[in-house]
Amino acid sequence: MPPDSDSINLTNHFLIAMPSLSDELFSRSVVFMCEHSERGALGLVINKPSDILLPRLFEKVDLLMGRDDLLNVPVFQGGPVQTERGFVLHEAIDCGDGESVYASTLSILGGLEMTTSKDVLEAMAAGAGPRKVFVTLGYASWGEGQLESEITENSWLTVEADPKLIFDAPVAERYDRAMALLGLQPWMLSPDAGHA
């Protein structure tokens, strides 16, 4: 059998860092997978807020925040790649022809979209735009076969994504709640569990 015959597609899944993953960027991370194919993978870390709030990010691109519900929402550290660039994960908005209303948008299996064009920010500045949004600077990526290798090495657990965890769960609880989707708690996987 060729190796690709049982390849997995982790689009619209969470990657949950194993407790043993000590990499500073990814320790205790939950990554929402926006795209996964034989060429590689792209995701956004959903539980590492930066010290920047959305209104400050809007100021940096010469916009004023037009929505009170987003005034105290942090911008997240989405990953180590292109950390100067914004990524907006949001519910799908269909303009009637099956296409997104925003210019540079990746439609994600499961009903979400990731937009990188300024028009989504302009809509939010005007008091409109997607109701549920998650904004990062940067993203995480893996080259061909790299993610599969890391999963084989027990660096990550995977589970189908739950949008409520991205948009509604308190940030401090996202890691534990992602583990709970698998029926696990972090201490169950700790190398020190059970030792007195």
Quick tags:
globular, about 200 residues, alpha+beta, ten-stranded mixed sheet
Outline the structure in words:
By secondary structure, this protein is of the alpha+beta class. The protein has a single domain (3-189), classed as VC0467-like (3-Layer(aba) Sandwich). Helix content is 19%, strand content 32%. It is built from six helices and ten strands, in the order ββββαββββαβαβααα. It has helices at residues 54-60, 118-125, 146-152, 163-167, 174-180, 186-189; strands spanning 13-17, 30-37, 40-45, 49-53, 74-77, 81-91, 105-108, 112-115, 133-142, 156-160. Strands 1, 2, 3, 4, 5, 6, 7, 8, 9 and 10 form a ten-stranded mixed β-sheet that branches.
Show the helix and strand layout.
Elements: E1 13-17, E2 30-37, E3 40-45, E4 49-53, H1 54-60, E5 74-77, E6 81-91, E7 105-108, E8 112-115, H2 118-125, E9 133-142, H3 146-152, E10 156-160, H4 163-167, H5 174-180, H6 186-189
Parallel strand pairs: 5-9
Antiparallel strand pairs: 1-2, 1-10, 2-3, 3-9, 4-5, 6-8, 6-9, 7-8
Q: Termini distance?
A: 46 Å
Which stretches are low in confidence, meaning pLDDT under 50 for 5 or more residues running? 1-5
Structure class: alpha+beta
Tell me the domain tally: 1
Mean pLDDT: 90
H/I helix tally: 6
Strand content: 25-35%
How many E strands? 10
Run of helices and strands: EEEEHEEEEHEHEHHH
CATH superfamily: VC0467-like
- CA radius of gyration: 17 Å
Supply the CATH architecture: 3-Layer(aba) Sandwich
Percentage of residues in helical conformation:
10-25%
Shape: globular
What's the CATH C level? Alpha Beta
Major sheet: size, sense and barrel closure?
10 strands, mixed
CATH domain topology: VC0467-like
